[in-house]
Amino acid sequence: MFKINTEILEKKITFLFFENPKKTFNLKQIKYFIGTKIEERDLMKMLFSVLRKDYIKESGRGKYIYNKNKRYLVGIIKKRVKTLVDIETSIEFKLTKSEKTGFLEGDIVYYWIDKKEKIRIASLKDRELIKYVGHIKKDGKVNLLKNSNLDFDIIVKGECKEDDIVSAHITDWKYSLPEGKILKIIGNKEETNTQIHAILEEYNLPYFFSKEVLKEANKISKKKASSIKRKDLRNTLTFTIDPDDAKDFDDALSFKKLKNNNVEIGIHIADVTHYLEKNTLLDKEAKKRATSVYLSDRVVPMLPEILSNDLCSLNPNEDKNVFSVLVEIDNNYNIISKEFSKCLINSNERMSYQEAQHVIENKTEKLPADVTITKKKRSLSKELVEAILHLNSVALKLKEKRKNEGSVFFNKEEVRFVVNDQGEPTDYKIKKQKQANFLIEEFMLLANVLVAKKIKEKNRTAVFRVHDYPDEEKIIELERFAKNLGYYVKLSNVKNINVAINSLLKKAENNPEKNILDMMVIRSMSKAKYSTNNIGHFGLGFNDYTHFTSPIRRYPDVIVHRLLSSIILKQTPKQEDLENACLHCSKMEETATKAERASTKMMQVKYMSKRINQKFSAIVSGMNERGIFVEIKENKCEGLVRMKDIPNDYFVYDHKNNKVVGQNTHEEYSFGDEVIIKVIGTDLDKKHIDFKILERKE
Fold it and tell me: Is residue 313 part of a domain?
């Protein structure tokens, strides 16, 4: 089963007629053209939609032709060197001399067919004020803003210095270069702090909280945790498991043996809404931000530190207000009962993933110095060790159940750079999930599912975390990609696509190309998002799923906390526009992800700039007309090997077979090939690393 992107397919149908204005087409021909396996009734629905919009008309029974009275289509453009491309349909427009300037990435345009039946840009829809971030280059008395993503400079007015990073917007475009106005001077481009602030500025993300917001946060800091109207669990064994450098602890687990030999497991989440009152200045700011942003060297939090790291954080040996999901589980790992309750806890232990992993692997109370947070030997209580081992056995069963129900499993390695006081990367750490990570993950997933089901039972409009089925075309592309790597799996014609993808990932588990294959599988998927329309979560294999477990860093969780609280208290809250809230939170999540990737790439470039002429083992991760992209095995830094820097031949890109081929030797480079490369250059402005291939590994 695949997702049908109705909007794009309708546009493709329209373009078939748009490109062939004198030809008639029947249903069979239209289906062949769009190249998608689609039920005839679904195709007819789309065809009638195109008919209603007057782009086409019936020319006979079952035959259709372009309606010449309907002249325009609307598209969002992507800029190439000599053309503009509709990003949804890949329709390409060749530019006349007069059209070569004035169009920007993301512009919405009207296009049409001229008298010579050529596709032309008709006009530009009103453009929103777009902000550009770049560094200043002096050209005499003229200040030029240079941005590596633009194929033009912007002449900017305002006081600034050479190499200042500034933000600006375009005010006029009469001649070859646009004119603009400086909005903000961010700082000198050589400073890491400036570069990070530039990324935040580019994506319209905040650096700081306003004085008014901080003042309001300081006022509520006097609110203390209390057992009034709360279930008191302070005497129940409770602990947190987080990264060793974590500062905010938004979840904890508790463990209690019951008289009937079952166990009660508590999944405790920081009760942010106890402090974050609705429609206050602080709440509005959190809603606007929607998510914490995790950059390479810092976190830009959704909530001020006094809440995220102190008041709401489940710090050890402190009374804390929590919103809890309590589940009773029998010896066969069946959930006997569940309870949703506001509770009061006092965490007995703050553990790192590394410490918990040592307990799981060695079943011991003693922790050696090299695994502890303090780097000193310490011992855990017998009860805590027993609890961790029991919880781990439950987590393994939950994971197995998920697998059987169609959940797709990734274990992609992530790199975190270690930075010095100046923000310069000096080292890196490979972050790989182990069973301790999965232990926490499974209980968080369980809580999210149970909360989603509870809300669904009450038929309330709610915020769900949804993930649609993948697009068929992307799955076919993934299948072709896997084949190039030597994995002959059928993905496009299988009933359980989840199972087939898991099988593919399993086959690649211990191979050098695993990371690249993981990335391509992720790219083939639809994007998860927030919605009031509960279509389920394909990737996790859940019919009902929401986000409840991270209200310190995600605003959707705050909304869900308030909704669940109203259900427990049998209240009918004032109706909100939750769908718009979902759209906003999804958009901010996507923006935060882009900023995080940009900061990681910046750190990669800075790190590799100190390693010019050094050799590394790398994997071919991509290719195009310019050359081969490779990813260094040890630190996951990716860069480009230009065609001229591939030895022993003149190489060209074979688009059809997705290979780079030598014209004389016929030597081929494909995805997953292992090569020895040398770093030959870096460009911080473009966030680009250049490599040269020295040899290939057979």
Answer: yes
In terms of domains, do 392 and 405 share one? yes
* CATH code for position 677: 2.40.50.140
445 with 318, same domain: the answer is yes
Last residue of a domain, one of 77, 92, 124: 124
Q: Is residue 27 situated within a structural domain?
A: yes
Cβ neighbours for 683, distance < 8 A, ≥ 6 positions apart: 148, 605, 690
Q: Please measure the distance between the N-terminal and C-terminal CA atoms of the chain and give it in whole angstroms.
A: 39
Tell whether 552 and 509 lie within a shared domain.
no
Quick one: 558 and 501 in the same domain?
Answer: no
Instruction: Answer yes or no: do 327 and 453 share one domain.
Output: yes
For 655, the token pair is: 């688009």
Q: What's the pLDDT at 323?
A: 97
Dump pLDDT digits (tens) for 423-478: 899 998 888 889 999 999 999 999 999 999 999 998 888 999 999 888 777 888 78
Whether the pLDDT of residue 539 is over 70: the answer is yes
Residue 262 has a pLDDT of 96
Which CATH number does the domain housing residue 180 bear?
Answer: 2.40.50.700
Q: Quickly count: other Cβ atoms within 10 Å of residue 620's Cβ.
A: 24
Gap between the Cα atoms of 451 and 324, Å rounded: 10
Please state, in angstroms and as integers, the Cα–Cα distance from residue 468 to each residue in 22, 365, 452, 477, 533, following that order.
Answer: 38, 44, 17, 18, 11
Q: Which residues contact 227 (CB under 8 A, 6 or more apart)?
A: 234, 344
Q: Which of 134-148, 180-194, 244-258, 482-496 has the lowest mean pLDDT?
A: 482-496
676, two tokens: 């020895």
Q: Does a structural domain hold residue 604? A: no
CA distances for 554 relative to 84, 263, 326, angstroms:
37, 30, 22
User: Domain of 31: which CATH number?
Assistant: 1.10.10
C-alpha span between 680 and 614 (Å, rounded): 8
Does residue 280 have a pLDDT over 90? Answer: yes
Q: Angle CA(638)–CA(642)–CA(646) in degrees, nearest 5?
A: 105
* Residue with the two structure tokens 């209240």: 571
What pLDDT, on the 0 to 100 scale, is given for residue 115? 56
Q: What is the pLDDT of residue 344?
A: 96
pLDDT tens digits, 86-113: 665 566 666 665 555 566 666 666 666 5
Asked if the structure places residue 601 within a domain, the reply is: no
| 8 A C-beta contact, residue 471 and residue 526 | yes
Give yes or no for a contact between 630 and 691, defined as CB atoms under 8 angstroms apart. Answer: yes
The domain tally of the chain equals: 5
Tens digit of each residue's pLDDT (9 = 90 or more) over 402-430: 988 888 887 777 888 888 888 899 998 88
State pLDDT tens for residues 657-686.
Answer: 888 999 999 999 988 889 999 999 999 988
CA distances from 127 to 82, 91, 92, 583 (A): 21, 21, 21, 21
- In the block, which residue shows the tokens 């279930």? 231
Could you give the C-alpha distances from 357 to 104, 362, 363, 549, 589, in angstroms and in order? 51, 8, 10, 22, 30
- Please state, as a whole number, how many other Cβ atoms lie within 10 Å of the Cβ of residue 121: 20
| Closest by CA position to 91, among listed 70, 64, 112 | 112
Q: Which of 107, 124, 141 is the last residue of a domain?
A: 124
Strand partners, 65: 24, 57
The rounded distance, in Å, linking the Cα atoms of 660 and 652 is 6
**What are the tokens at 312?**
């709401």
Q: Which run of H or of E encompasses 379?
A: strand 378-379
pLDDT at residue 8 tops 80: no
Which percentage of the chain shows pLDDT scores above 90?
A: 54
| Judgement on whether residues 331 and 435 belong to the same structural domain of the protein | yes
Residues 259 and 314 in one domain: yes
Strands 131-139 and 119-124: unpaired
Which residue range(s) make up the domain with 642? 611-697
Residues 141 and 113 in one domain: no
